[in-house]
Amino acid sequence: MLSHNSRPFNVLLILISIVLLFATFILTIVGTAGSTSNYNPINRIYLGDADISHINVTKVLPQFDSTLKILGTNMLNQSNTVESIFHSISGIASNESSLAALLQILSTTENTDATVDSMLDLSKLLLDDSSSQMATAMLAQINQLFDASSNDTMTLLSLETLIGLELQNNSNSNVTAMTLNLLNGSSNPLDSVKNLETLNDLSTDDKENLVPVFELFQNTNNATGLMASLATVMSNGESISGSRATLLLTALQSQLASGANVSSVISSLSGLITSDERPVVNAIADILEYSTDTNTTLSILEELVSNNVTSSEYARTALTSLASIVADSSNTTNALMTVSELSNASISNSTLTTMQLASLTSLLESSNDEGTTISVLSNLQNAMTSSSTIVESVPSLFTLLSSSSDPMGTYRALVVIVGWAHDNPSEFQSTLTLLENYKNAPNKVTSEQLIEMSPDLLEFLNVATSYRIAIFNLCKANANNEILSCSKPHAVQNLDIRAIIYESLEDSDFKPFMDALDIQADDLHLEGKLLHREHEYVSAVRAILALNLLTIIFSFFLIVVLIILLFKFRIIGIISVVMAFCVALFSILSGIITAVIAEVIKSGTYEDNYGVVYKSGQNYMGLIWSGFAFAFISFFLIVWYVVRYRKMLKAEREEQEKGNYYNDVVDDVSSTELDANAAMDTSDTISSVERQKNSAAITTTNGNSNEKMNSESNYVISDSSGEDQVPNGNIV
């Protein structure tokens, strides 16, 4: 048995170990179950806290980059509060369609300054009643153009080029009107404009050589017949030489001057004409028959022959295109006049006319309804010529569209804003004030300044800025660390930054702005190291949960084992040590993994530069590391107890062994003494007997001597055994 004095100290060691293990047991349970309920102080226990109060909104939501620049610049330079700024846009924000339209324009702009300038210029048009109606009508016309388009982008670019060219050269406006009038009366506008392009592609010299052709049409009463006759002349021009043609025309002119008619003159010359030349001569006769001024017509024909126009390839091509235009046109005279005007314009400025026709071709090629396209273009041209205000605003319109990554979306948004502004001029003016402040601001807000403004902005919009992540749930808190809500506890809380931020924005006053642009979770621009390692977080938390549970289980059973030791003071030995070691090991591993998770998240958020700041939950870490400290101390105490117990047991065993050895020695000594005494007694007995025998022997010897000495008179008596017997009588 152990010493009576050592037992109280051993009991004390066990009691201290039980208390420490119980503390580990409770602390681990509290840390594991932290934040499962939304009440103090349990909701202050969590693995970590993600703070987004200084989030880089323009990086996460680039759709709001321009919007935040405008708002931030107003806050920076006008000393406006968040409340006053949002009050200024409350009017447009109250209307979902108008808010969506404004955000659409700002979210797709690639040049915020140019977009703001364009909107301010267009606002002058919108705030004027008469101009506003015309602008609305013009935008409606353009909208019809897009409705009829199969390629909005091509339509927009072509329209921008066409109107821009007209604004650059007002002298060309009449040509534009005539061209559109020609196309409007054409049964095949696209074919007609392509034929116009063919005519325009001729060189300047060729165009000048063809000018007399258009003069022929001015002196004819049968344009169609003239066209056919010219085609015959040019298709057979090589069959008659230039000199022969000149001679023929000179003869015709001289005879006609004498009063002869064309038919008689041709008949008189028939003997001089070959069969190959006859189609050309007959065609010339028809031209003269259709002419209202024969002499002028002959002079023009002579000029054409002298310039070799009738035998040139370019002339044939041009005449073919002209014939096609006339054939498609419902008004031949108008068609010929338009072609003539276009030819003269292209001679003076071929580049401008070429670009104009190319734009018209693109518009018609991208149209599903050529008639509607031509009609809309004609109406737009008339509107621009009738209003100088619209003319001045049109460049701003196309600047706005060219600054957008989605021109069509911007245009349709502008149509919505125009309609809303016409009905709500005062609310629109409040919005314009913010744009004017931005334009006139001496300093534009920087990204760093926007990040500093984020807490006030998020607080005003009631966006949760703190996310407390526990093992089983997630709690959201505001800037004042007030818990707003907690998710329902479930198996293991995931660290899905994208879902966390998106749900918080959806649950805040920022939702209308998100809905206006139809922003979903996948639209958040969250890419980087942290998101690529998100899948590791759940596994790590599961490991933490498993280790915490093992700590709880092992500490509980170890407490039971130690309690048993109090009542049954026996050493369980290695089992207690192993269990105590496991409790300490599991608790420290839990703390280490938690710390590693925190460092991974911190490094990820820092490198990704989203403005998300992650901090470890101090209360949770305090509980877990305190639990480990208590478990480690209890492990040390149990090891001490076991070692101490074994040493004492060994000492007692050695003492007992020494006692047993002493008893054995004493017993051996006693046995030896007894044996010695017995031996001495036996020796004495033997000595006595021997003495008696010796005495008897001596007596016998003496007797025999006496008998021998007295042999004459004495005799020896023998018994029946043959032994000698002492005689009865004393030996004298």
Automatic annotation (TrEMBL):
The chain crosses the membrane at residues 12-34, 543-567, 574-601, 621-643. Residues 681-732 are annotated as: Disordered. One of its GO terms (biological process) is long-chain fatty acid transport. Keywords: Membrane, Transmembrane, Transmembrane helix. Residues 681-720 have a biased composition (Polar residues). GO terms for cellular component: cell cortex of cell tip; plasma membrane. InterPro entries: SUR7/Rim9-like_fungi (IPR009571), SUR7_domain (IPR052413). It comes from the Eukaryota. The keyword Transmembrane helix applies. The keyword Transport does not apply. This is Uncharacterized protein. The lineage of its organism: Eukaryota, Fungi, Dikarya, Ascomycota, Saccharomycotina. The gene is KAFR0G03400.
